[in-house]
Here is the input.
Amino acid sequence: MAVLLLAEITNGELSLDATAKAVSASRELGEITVLAVGAECADAASQAAAIENVTKVLCAEDSLYGKRLAEPTSMLIASLAQDYDHIVAPATTDAKNIMPRVAALLDAMVISDVSAVIDHETFERLIYAGNAVQTVKSRDAKKVITFRTSTFDAAGSGGRATVEDIAVSDNPQLSEWVEDKLASSDRPELTSAGIVVSGGRGIGSEENFALVEKLADKLGAAVGASRAAVDSGYAPNDWQVGQTGKVVAPDLYIAIGISGAIQHLAGMKDSKTIVAINKDEEAPIFQVADFGLVADLFQAIPELTDKLD
Amino acid sequence: MKILVPVKRVIDYNVKVRVKGDGTGVDLANVKMSMNPFDEVALEEAIRLKEAEQADEVIAVSIGVQKAQETLRTALALGADRGILVVAADDVHNDIEPLAVARILKAIVDEEQPNLVLAGKQAIDNDMNATGQMLAALLGWSQATFASELSVKDEHAVVTREVDGGLQTIRVKLPTIVTVDLRLNEPRYASLPNIIKAKRKPLEERTAADMNIDVDPRLEILSTTEPATRTAGIRVNSVDELVEKLKETGAL
Ligand SMILES: Cc1cc2nc3c(=O)[nH]c(=O)nc-3n(C[C@H](O)[C@H](O)[C@H](O)COP(=O)(O)OP(=O)(O)OC[C@H]3O[C@@H](n4cnc5c(N)ncnc54)[C@H](O)[C@@H]3O)c2cc1C
Ligand SMILES: Nc1ncnc2c1ncn2[C@@H]1O[C@H](COP(=O)(O)O)[C@@H](O)[C@H]1O
Here is the structure.
């Protein structure tokens, strides 16, 4: 059995964490070939080659692939598919954009956001915002899968895969890139951080979000937000945690001024330790919190930030 | 310009989902059902394009059980011009997979020739996030997923997409498929006069079988179970106690 794994690459840079988690999720499925795609992908390819359990890395370098547009990238993957039984990727927004398209090109049903591998054709995935776990068996000849990264540990390093350049496919010229507005931050990445501090509507304004950020920086944590906080303009969209945002499972998750709607819980309830700070003692977030503090966040957060030295 | 909006009937997002004890699925009998929230946003966007005279017809399509016609009536009350129901299942517990939905939608697109398909990014029941991308593949069309801004000009659409790192803007050739995120707009409510008017709007009914489209699932569902539940921990009375506990348990 052979696996083709789409590496997560943004602007030539490999997301080692997401890619290595997908590698560990695929370990039981067969020999793993990583596909590195980008305007520049040599560095990313050699980094991917060092992930444990990777046998080979294919490098498809062309300006065409610079922005990971779905149409050319899915064409390329579909053209390589004949040699593989499983075509997989970490469930990032890029892969969620591309992989269903690949699946349809191969007349297969994509298996999205898989949280456990039972065997080469049987997988677990969460449905209804994480309120039910479904075990599905694929009848398709080729299995196209995205893996929920929060439930897999990253594969280690020390691999010595070969890197091979491959030909690019045609540009269907259906779409073009216009602009990226990507946040750059010195903080750890939300989906791989050991600690996440998230703020909700209770924070009240964009200015007040500085309280959350200050606490996060003290802890070396990533910053998250509820959808309500993002929708209200307190926080950027890429901070959103939940059913329709990012799924995180850090060692410590601190939810501040977040009520705990199921759609939010879907994105964080696998965290190891959950702390909730909310002034409403009935808030549902307390039902999943290991440590709950009923308090006004405008007093509790500065105090907590001060006391962490 | 003609716009096609696929709308799915799903369990209402406020309902607490109950997994059936025998592992066969989630209990949907006598549960409040609504239009998938993302599809409300897609429909709203289509109606706004029509109001701005950029579109002349909005067609809502739903695939599922007979009762999905309620969802289509809602779409008509909100401003869609006509509806197409494709009956593909006789039991609400039988969910039609995105690949089959995409194949049915492709057949409808081939007939109706819309310039734009506006779908939701994800159905909140199966959480697949796949149908729009699959339909784009089957048609060989461009796609723009997770849209939080959309403008249509001549032969192109410019779409801002919500991606992991922030926002990406792309320009796609028409005809195209856009899947929408919740932040694209805020959907309106249907007014009573419009609900009454909607009863007279055309709603065509078909079946997947008549269309000769196989809807057999590719993913056989072996079981559906409750996820591991978390139990509430303890309440702390002060910030000091919180810090102490976090240190004690090694969380800090
Ligand atoms: C289809 C769909 C998808 C969704 N996806 C997501 C998602 O991915 N992620 C997500 O988060 N949500 C999502 N939502 C929204 C979700 O349903 C909730 O509306 C949202 O999570 C609420 O955010 P919140 O907890 O910040 O706000 P609220 O529910 O308004 O809670 C604010 C909390 O702050 C507390 N508070 C206020 N002031 C203070 C203070 N001074 N001190 C302490 N506490 C205070 C209040 O007691 C309250 O509990 C989705 C909804 C839908 C319909
Ligand atoms: N049965 C259906 N009927 C109508 N539209 C659907 C159906 N299933 C999916 N869709 C559309 O495809 C989007 C994504 O659904 P999914 O791929 O299932 O997450 C939804 O938001 C709808 O716009």
